[in-house]
């Protein structure tokens, strides 16, 4: 049973976390390069927010948005 858990440890530490170890060592060379994943996620989130706001504006202009304050039973 010990070999099974050591195999799991080897898989995660030496194989799956290798790219993150590379980014950690890259931080000493260039900060922007080490934070590439963060920049990519920020770009994806910004694009999603812009898309969401555009969709909200489309439904608001069409008049299909229910803005009645009694839309929920707990607001009565």
TrEMBL record:
TM region(s), chain numbering: 28-53
Any Pfam family matching the protein: DUF6341
Record-level Gene Ontology MF annotations: glycosyltransferase activity
Membrane among keywords: yes
InterPro entries xref list: DUF6341 (IPR045922)
UniProt entry keywords in alphabetical sequence: Glycosyltransferase, Membrane, Transferase, Transmembrane, Transmembrane helix
Domain of life where this protein originates: Bacteria
Protein name as catalogued: Uracil phosphoribosyltransferase
Organism the protein comes from: Flavobacterium hydrocarbonoxydans
